[in-house]
Amino acid sequence: MSGRFSEIWVYLSASPLLGLTITLLAYQAAYWVYQRLDMNPLANPVALSVAVLVALLWFTGTPYQTYFDGAQFVHFLLGPATVALAVPLYANLEALKKDLAPLAGGLLAGSLTAAVSAVVIGWLLGASRETLVSMAPKSVTTPIAMGIAEKLGGLPSLTAVLVVSTGILGAVLARGTLNLLGIEDHAVRGFAVGVAAHGIGTARAFQVSETMGAFAGLAMGLNGLASAFLFPLLATLWGR
Amino acid sequence: MLGALTLLLVYQLIGEVIVQAAGVPVPGPVVGMLLLFLTLLARGSAPEWLRSTSQTLLSHLSLLFVPAGVGVMLHFRRLEAEWLPILAALVASTVLTIGVTALVMRALQRRK
What we know:
Largest interface: A-B, 110 and 71 residues
Number of domains of chain A: 2
Oligomer: heterodimer
Distance between the termini of chain B: 42 Å
Number of domains of chain B: 2
Helix content of chain A: over 70%
Number of strands of chain B: 0
Strand content of chain A: under 5%
């Protein structure tokens, strides 16, 4: 019996089916827990599913690469999802035109603050160069951030982890920070969360209100777009 | 659904080709996003079939981060060695970014 079982295990663990299926199962289980806990930002579904999957892989001694051979089908969708950001961006065209100066100003200030403050604090506390480069695009949505890190000589997989961590932190810390500053406008709240915490912040914002979500999505798209052009430029200037 | 997915992939592909051909350090999907945005601007509206597929894809956006997030297991050693600078930088920078963005935006709104 156990011989038969290990045969099945050997077969399954070498096929992409398992990595893909456990990713979907873990995420849906995590999302169920998240809903059960009244969408408490601390029970972030991304963090929960990552924790479950890491524990599972560690317990079964499965290398990340084997898991990723299956999970890459989910990961791949980040590309078309990035392209799809054009659609909500276009849907918010009126808001974009109406508030162009505040949105552009907030975007530029936020985008620079995110990169510069993270690199400076990390550098002061003695983080390595590789870590700093990988951390710089941490507020940018994953596919774009990984692309930026790769072009700048960071570690794209480390960037992905830092981006996801930042998104979770943003979803957890946004409400307190914005309340402290007395920001009530849902458009401003959403935009700030989107600039700082990309897709995870946006997912969170959509749960609060439609307006907040739309502006967070707008911020995520614009920040990705601006950063993709701004970061290589900043890095060139820095390098000189 | 199928048409919209194909369209998104075609734009991504065009983006990748442009990036490779021009040698610019910008991710291909970003160029694809920009081109699709410009197409919608020129067309004057987003077709319903494209809107519904995009919405479906983006409403499950957080799922798409999971495989990359699991990559944390490749970096345990680095995280163990550098956990303090990383954690401090991420927490402080996230709070600062949210605050600065919101304050600058509000200040500019009031000036109008």
